Structures are given as C-alpha cells and as structure tokens.
Amino acid sequence: MSRIVVGLSGGVDSSVAALLLQEQGHEVIGIYMRNWNDESVTINNECPWIDDANDAMLLADHLGIPFQVMDFSDDYKRRIVDYMFDEYEAGRTPNPDVLCNREIKFDAFLKAAMELNADFVATGHYCRKRENPDGSFSLLSGLDSNKDQSYFLCQVSQEQLSKALFPVGELQKSDVRSLAENAQLPTAKKKDSQGLCFVGKVKLPVFLQQQLAPKSGDVIELPRNHQYFPDVADSNDSRFYVQPDWPEGIVIGTHQGAHFYTVGQRKGLGIGGRSTPLFVVGVDTKKNHVYVAEGDDHPALLRWGLRMEIDTENWPGGTPLLSEGEQMEVNTRIRYRQPLQDATLLRKNGALHLWFREKQKAITPGQFAAWYNSQDELLGSGVIV
C-alpha cells in the first residue's frame, strides 16, 4: 500500500477522498493548506480558514489519521495574489483557481508531501486520472458533469499528474454525500465553499482597491451598427485574432478604474434605467476606458475565436499534439461550467488559436481556454490573449 498525503480543505469532498483511501488500506496523512495570512488585504473575520482548518482536524481525528496545518501563504502571495494584481492592472482577468492548482496544490504542496516520503498526493477534485499503456497519464473529466473540475487542473504537468490521485472523480456528488453520512464524517452536511478563502465575503473590487488605486474614467457605450469582428469564421483572417479598434461611442457614465472590470461583466456598472442590460465588452487600462454594449447579442460581445499566449501553453499529457500549420477538432470551454463547444485548434506562427462553430460570448483576456477530445480527456490549455 502507498503513503498518501491528502489535502484536507475542511469540506466534504476531500474528507471522502481521505475516507476512500483509508478504506483501500493506504497510509493516509491529512494536511490543511493555509494560503493567506495578510490581514491588511482582507477582512480576517470573514475569512473561514480557521473554521475550515478546525473541520479538517476533526475529520482527521474521526478517521484516526495524522494531521497538520502547513503555511503556504508566502508562496501564495508571490505566485498567485501578486499575479492577480498585475493582471487586473493590465486589464486582463486572471483565474486564480487554475493557478493555485498549478503553483500551490501540485507544486509547493506536492513538494512538501514528498518530503514526508509520500508516494502520492490526493485532493477532492471531481476529475479522473488514467494510466496509458506507454506509462503516461491522462487527465479526464469527472463523471459528475455538474461538478466536473478538470478545467481547474488544465495547467498541471505530466510530472504533477503522475503523483496525483482524485478519489471522488468516479463518483456523483450525491454519492459523496451519502458516503460521508454513512461514515458519520463531521463534514458530511457542510455546504460547498464558494470563491477564494482569502477574499472571503469581500467583493473583488474592494479587494483589488487594497493595491490598485481608484482612477475615475469614462464608461462608453458602443453602437450596434458596426462590424467589430469578421462575419464568417475564417482562420486565415487576421482580424479574427486581434482586439478591434473600438469605434467612437457615447459616454454614458463614469467608473472608478478600468482595472476593476472584466469582459462580460453585467453587474456593478452603476448605470440603471435600461430595459435591456449592459455588458462590458472591452477594457482599456491605458486610456482608462470601459466599453459597454446593450444586450448579450451585441456584435461587440460575440466573436468566432481567440489566440493564446505562447508561453502559457500546457499539455497535461506531456507532448504537444500540433506542429506549425496543423489543426485538430476539439471540444473547448473558455470558462468553468461552460458547456463544451465544438472548435478547431490550430497552430499559426508558433501560437495556438481556436475558432468555433458558433460565435462565443465574452471571450475574456487572461482566462484559460481548455480543450478536450471526444473521450473526455483534457488535452491542453492556454491563456487567452
């Protein structure tokens, strides 16, 4: 049997992961990761880490497994939070959950587990790992399509994947709850956590204002009668991949900093009196402009495809599947919980591009695009430019 370190979050999913591994006869060690302790950038009373750590400790005591709290806050601030501030300041919208898995859970935490002579680390993620005949590993979607979290692991490497276990990936959420209740786990009826612990219940703009100063600027509404992007999906059309020069619009309000907004955002604009909602369609932090459009069918919000940053390209299987000029048909999502979209992945000028069968709403720079094959295998990902 193996020695396995389980990342106990204080929730029911990681609790059942530990339970299942123990029932299989493995030596299980529980670790709670503390990722934030800077009280100057959060409202500490509203951050549930103390309660979560206590729940994780109670779970470990219930199972009779060793337990400790490990502090990764320095790594988290440097590798996740500072990156978040930099990205928002540049007008992009990062995904800290994807980065946390790549940089903390399956890097800093994994290394700490290896120092405890662990064979593997395990988490409560709803995804699956498959060992292939050649000895490599593949990352698959969780069987519960409503809880599938493979998107959040789209940046893990083959080496990281080889040391990872996902015990609840084959289960439905209802089965996880039932197992927890039958085993009388103290976390059995605990609600699922929402968002990042260190942000707690603080609204994201409030958190960002701790580091990014407010700066008044114009909210500009864009006209509908303008061709923002090509009308037909054509991977050879250079306009397909670039941000357009926004046409002259109408100033309809002010904001407190373009870096506080994200493409696709609907709430928080502070502009009322509309029967049809406004959406953010563009952010320019240099001019400090926020561009908005009326209705989710506005042509400025819809486009056929995207380009990704070259140095963020990742293939969990270990080997890039495309050479220059090649393309392949894939199933793609550009945000968590988005239904998979039919798309073509192609490599042009060294970079990866995606173009879709149907126009996509609110393609957001800074977010991750992830692509799968027809067998639910996550093939790769990259950051959207």
Tell me about this structure.
The protein has 385 residues and is of the alpha/beta class. It folds into three domains: 3-124 and 167-207, HUPs (Rossmann fold, 3-Layer(aba) Sandwich), CATH 3.40.50.620; 213-300, Adenine nucleotide alpha hydrolases-like domains (SH3 type barrels), CATH 2.30.30; 303-383, Translation factors (Elongation Factor Tu (Ef-tu), domain 3). 22% of the residues lie in helices and 26% in strands. It contains seven helices and 17 strands. The protein has helices spanning 12-23, 49-63, 73-89, 96-115, 158-162, 173-182, 204-208; strands at 3-7, 27-34, 67-71, 120-122, 127-131, 137-141, 164-165, 217-221, 250-255, 278-284, 289-294, 302-307, 327-333, 341-348, 351-361, 368-372, 378-383. The strands form four sheets. A six-stranded antiparallel β-sheet has the order 12-15-14-13-16-17, with no helix packed on it. Strands 3-2-1-4-7 form a five-stranded parallel β-sheet, with helices on both faces. Helix 3 packs antiparallel against helix 4 (96-115). It is globular, with a radius of gyration of 22 Å. The termini are far apart. Residues 197-201 have low confidence and may be disordered.
